[in-house]
Design a protein that fits this description.
The chain has 115 residues and is an alpha+beta fold. It has one domain (5-113). Helices cover 47% and strands 14% of the residues. It has 5 helices and 3 strands. It has helices at residues 5-18, 26-35, 44-60, 99-102, 105-113; strands spanning 74-75, 80-86, 91-97. A 3-stranded antiparallel sheet has the order 1-2-3. The N and C termini lie far apart (43 Å).
């Protein structure tokens, strides 16, 4: 499996370090308070958006079409990968499934009947 437990632990370390400026410390609160005084400065939401983009890019590169499970990260029976990251400033759960599993044509037909 290309995305090993080591790779996932690296992702957890990177996201933990990247989210450190978002932790609720007195220094961070004062720093973001001064940043938010200038509306032209990027705020904490931009940092959070970049963290989200990085995590999404990581998961989109994962191959979820294997016959062997690597629990708790990858479940071959469900063809899904699940990573949970928790730090002082961020809790994020990222999941990737096969697109065919996410699309249910029967559900779309049922929704059209009630529109």
């Amino acid at each position: 499996m290309r995305t090993s437990a080591f790779t996932v632990s690296c992702l957890q370390s990177v996201l933990g370090a990247a989210s450190a400026p978002l932790a609720a410390t007195a220094e961070n609160v004062a720093g973001w308070g001064s940043v938010h005084l200038d509306l032209n400065e990027p705020g904490s939401y931009e940092l959070l958006g970049k963290i989200d983009e990085y995590a999404s890019a990581f998961m989109s590169s994962a191959n979820v079409d294997h016959v062997e499970s690597h629990l708790p990260i990858y479940d071959a029976a469900r063809n899904e990968m699940l990573v949970h990251v928790e730090s002082k400033a961020l809790t994020m759960t990222i999941m990737k499934v096969l697109a065919t599993l996410a699309y249910d044509p029967g559900l779309e037909i049922a929704q059209k009947k009630f529109r």
